[in-house]
Amino acid sequence: MATTAPGPAAPTAAQPRARRIARVAARVALGVLAVLFAIWLVLFVTKGRFLKHPFESVAGRLTNRTVTVGGDFQLYFSPLRLTFYAEKLSVSNPGWATRPYLFTAGRIDSRIAPLSLLFGKRRFHWLDLTDGAVDLEWNAAHDRNTWTFSEKKGSGKPLDLPRIDRATIAGTTVRYRDPRMRLETQAALDTIRSTGARIGQAVGVTGSGVLRDTPFTLVARLLSPDATVARGRNQLAMRARAAGNVIDVTGTLPSLAQVEGVPLAVRARGRNLAALLGIIDVAIPNTRTYRLRAQLVQQGQEYRFTRLAGTFGDSDLAGRLTVTNGDRLHLDSRLETRRLDIVDAAPFIGYNPDIVATKGAEAAAAATGVGPQRLLPDAALPVATMQRFDADLKWTIRTVRSRRVPISNVDLTLALDRGKLTLSPLRFAMARGDVSSDLLFDTRQRPSLVRYDIRLSPTPLGRLLAGWGVAEAGTTGTVKGRVQLTGRGDTIHDSLASANGRMAFILPAGSLWTKNAQLAELDIGTFVQKMFEKELKEPVRINCGLIAFTVRGGVAAADPILIDTSKNVITGRGGFSFRNEALDMAVRADAKTFSLFSGQSPVGITGSFAHPGINPISGDLLTRAGAGLGLAVVATPLAGVLAFVDVGDAKAAACGPVLSGARASAQRTVKGDKRDDVGRGTTAKAEDGKGNPGEAKAQRKKFLGIF
How many distinct structural domains can be found in the chain? Predict the structure, then answer.
């Protein structure tokens, strides 16, 4: 039976409906295109001049500003780029601004990528700007600015300039004002002609301004040499001068005016780094001539200086620094120094390093306002400035170059929080010993509260005192100690002159050997020789020793000075004053065994911190000499020597209280008896601090009651 082939399937009802929808959609699309073409044609023929007033109205509502066009106006597509042309264009500033207009231009002619106005970064294919003036300003709270078109608090955004492929900019000025940074600058641009997102020739920018009351000038050049990568890369070279400092900034900008996030090379030089940072109200100690270089990257409120390297004075510096311009200016830095010259360290205690280098510490102290022949500086802390910024610093120093005391491996941690400055910890190695300290300067209290807590670990005497006549070979003794003082004042001198506390240095068992030294200064070697009235032929054997002072009201009294050696007991009385820097002490060595010829008598330490002296002639010695002369006259010459006989009755010290750093009242003999030959630490009869070092002799009878 034959079969027949099936015929074509009958059309369904949905297919005609789909074709109708497609035809309608095509007609709608053609209609839209026709309308768009008609609009484009009308705009192209009329140049959109009829949109002038609608543009002013719409732009004003969108920006919350007054937008006006005082001359010709054009807005149309040509053919796919948006052409915008306006003469005497102005955009007002918000009411809080100090200038009336954000932007004015004698003429602006541009070709804009339309979609960039809706998506991504705005892009100008071409910009021709004549007689433009741009005014950029932050409000006092730093939460709004003139270029962010919103009246809400906290709406201020960083400046985001469009990408510009080709530009001709002539007769244009830019003003920038930031009340929080206290910065205001005005810059004028030379004529700019750029092609392919690059400037065709060098363009100059000149300007001036004021940063935190410090005037500055700047000169910049924008250029695009052939070696520069094409498509939007321009080299910046800028030089600014302020407060005797010169700052050079160079780098490659990815577009005509983009700086944020761009690595820039910065070099700075000047006579004093403190003057440079003082421009932004940051207080640091003075320095000698400096040269520094770093890489700068700015992101929002942060300015990060990395790869920092350079010199100040005869010292080097490396590390990084971040400056944050937030509600409070904050500095965070990590610094390293291979070698710090001791002269460059002088500003840390208030000395001018240039004066120290040329005239010495005494002249530097005098320059701070203290009297003549003084050493403690009287330079005031910058209290107001310290309360305006915060800081965190970590600084390591490998070696400090010093003539007398070897110092190395300095580890300094600094924190400044609203006027409270702490150096904690501050550690360094000194003569193979370690010094650890915690220092506080609290300027929030008036006058400032100052605390010193300095700890010295066991340190070899031979190396520590090598610069003062002690022989390192043959000296096995060590010293350890602690200084705890609390005072008030805005200078080091004032804080110490009012200080209370204790200073104690302990000498465990060991030996001390001195070199031959001249009596030209307060020399440890000379002092020890005068103590024993002969040149030492062998080291002094120390059993234990304590040199301690109780400090009350800036006056330090021996409490006690007690050193027990194999042959003598050395005791001392008197003290010194932080108020007028006078020294008035007497130290004597009493023999433990019989000595036929003894000139042992108090050796005076007199003068001042700046000019200490040794006085081996005391009233005790003169009395002995007079008695000997009398015996020799009335009896026989042999009898004269009896005045110099030492019966050797010195009482050896119990080393327990000595090594524990106990006060004079706790000291005992080896038999357990209370000692009556050491000072009691009283300052009740101390001088009142109004005298001068030259008056020390006249005050001696009332100063701490020495022998």
Answer: 2
